[in-house]
Amino acid sequence: MKAKFKRFLSTLRYICQLEPRMLYDGIAGAVINSIKPFVLLIISKVLIEAVLNKADYVVLLRRILLLLLGYFLCSLLGGYFEKRYNYYFKKFLLKHDMHKACHLLKIPYAWTEEDSMQEHLTEILNLETKNVYGFRSFSTRLNQTCGSLAGLLLAISLSAGIFMRGGSLGRLPAWGLDLAFILLFISLFLLTLKIVVWINVQFGELIGKNTTPLGRYLKAYNALIYQYRSGKDIRLFSKELATEYTKTYLAFSEKMFTFLSTLFTKNITIETMMASLTNGVLYFFIAVKALAGTIRLSEIMLFIGAFSQLIHYAMELLDGISMLYSGDLYREKLLDYYSWGKEDDSSLKRLAPSPTPTATCKAEAAAQSISNTKESSPSPPAACQVKELSFQYPGTERTVLKNISFSLVPGEKLAIVGENGSGKTTLIKLLIGLYKDYEGNIYLNGKNAREMSAENIGQLFAPVFQDYKLLAFTLKDNVTSFTELPDTQIKEVLTQVGLKEFYDTHGPDVYLTRSFEAEGVEISGGEGQKIAMARAMLKRAAIFVLDEPTAALDPIAERDIYEKFNEIIEGKTAVFISHRLSSCKFCDRILVLDKGELVQEGTHEVLLENEQGKYRTLWNAQARHYTKN
């Protein structure tokens, strides 16, 4: 319970951090709206008394106008704060989504690839769509709780007067009648509240347990059936599959709605029965008081209304609190997510940084300090040294890389080759700072990478990954990454990578894909690879990295692209990754990885001379597929 309350307070602080006006306006609107029913009760009492007592019309009109003015002001202010709340709530949701996305960048990249974290994020997104969970439910129930509390206090203050009027039932004295009513009323009321709380808790658990798998299926269906990219496959290959898929979708939908309908019907029936029983006791008590002559006719409606509002607001209060209690699962998941990465990766630094090694290799001798340069000007040469590097993914015991050591000389073209799964991409992710939890040391420009920020490491590298991503923005935005660069420079680089005709036809402001713009263009795989390479070149980083971005092409086409890119970046430092050896023949030096270990190092010619080496074995195995008998 204590932990739940702490999470509740943390959630309030989170809302105040992102959009506090949503919180204030929502509560203010709920409290003001809770006053309106009591103003109407007082108006009805005044009117009945005026008719019975034949009050002066001028005095009556003045009192009625004042009360109506109060009701009008409550309605006006309540509506005003509700509108403001809805506006700021939408702003909050946008900020919340961006805050979650930005926090993901603070979490160690290796963690983001873990299945457990992906499942955790999926669960958060699924919970946000449920009525019980998410910030829509939280803010609604919080406003309901605050408004109900204000209404409950007003109802108690108005209804308390009935116990000062006396009145007896038979031989039962007035105080006995009041005490009997209070005990019976409170007992029925508490029983009703207990049932409501139990219903809400069960409702929250059942919704999360029984509808989550159904909701995941329905969401997957909608994501597939409405994506225009899947239209070709469905039309040409899967019409029957789509038909069956639709039947399954409808069956799951009916199952979900049947479950919810049964649950709602059962809950509403129980709540209505208990509310009716409580109201019966209330009406009987007020009738006895009225027949005894202790309350006036005008007060009958006032007390009935006050007690009815007391019951209503007490039920609403407990309903709001119980629903807030039931929604704690989402807050727990969300706050756990935000707790990741707060340690600034200190929990991952299992080894203290070693002293900077002496200048014993050519790479260190050429090392230069990182300087802050403009985006449009080339960065200085960079040197890299890796010493006894080992790595295993979080939560696993299998070592992916084992005692890797090598150096990268400024201006050198280095190839890293090996079979799929040999650790090539993992090694690159370690070099460019995506993975931090490793043993050994990486030195960039003579500095230990452990002592460098992720931003400074990232400035050194311009990678093109196998699974590179282009955004649904303009061509210019994709290649410049939203930095200001002249169009002439953009055109020059696009021409170098072979996209001059594409640029001349569409221009720099054409949108890639039609996700955001109807006039966007659907690019081919080859064009996408060239755009990704242009983006790397325009970054003006010190080290280029090509991590098999052409793996989907045949070996000859891949080799041609690698050699073309090598010509474009002549004189610059580059690392080429491939499991196809022919693509990297032109490189100054080749590293051969096998099952996470560096087994060979040298030029293409030297490595081929070793008949027992891994490189020679791989070369012969791959070459026979392209050699004519």
Tally of extended strands?
10
User: Strand sequence of the main sheet, in spatial order?
Assistant: 6-7-8-3-9-10
Computed structural class: alpha/beta
What summary fits the major beta sheet? 6 strands, mixed
Tally of DSSP helical segments: 22
Unreliable residue runs = 343-382
Can you give the helix content as a percent range? Answer: 55-70%
Please state the average pLDDT score. 79
Q: How far is the N terminus from the C terminus?
A: 77 Å
Globally, the shape reads elongated
What portion of residues belong to β-strands? 5-15%
Radius of gyration: 36 Å
Kindly describe this structure:
The chain is an alpha/beta fold and 629 residues long. It is built from 22 helices and 10 strands. A hairpin with a 2-residue loop joins strand 9 and strand 10 (597-602). Helix 1 packs across helix 2 (20-53), helix 2 (20-53) packs parallel to helix 6 (134-159) and helix 17 (487-496) crosses helix 19 (525-538).
Outline the secondary-structure elements.
Blueprint lengths: L1 H17 L1 H34 L3 H48 L4 H4 L2 H14 L5 H26 L14 H37 L1 H14 L5 H7 L1 H53 L5 H30 L1 H12 L22 H4 L18 E8 L9 E8 L4 E5 L6 H8 L6 E7 L2 E2 L5 H7 E5 L9 H6 L6 H10 L3 H7 L18 H14 L4 E5 L7 H14 L4 E6 L10 E6 L2 E6 L1 H6 L4 H10 L6
Parallel strand pairs: 3-8, 3-9, 6-7, 7-8
Antiparallel strand pairs: 1-2, 1-4, 4-5, 9-10
Helix pairs in contact: 1-2, 1-12, 2-3, 2-6, 2-11, 5-12, 6-11, 7-10, 7-11, 8-10, 9-10, 10-11, 17-19
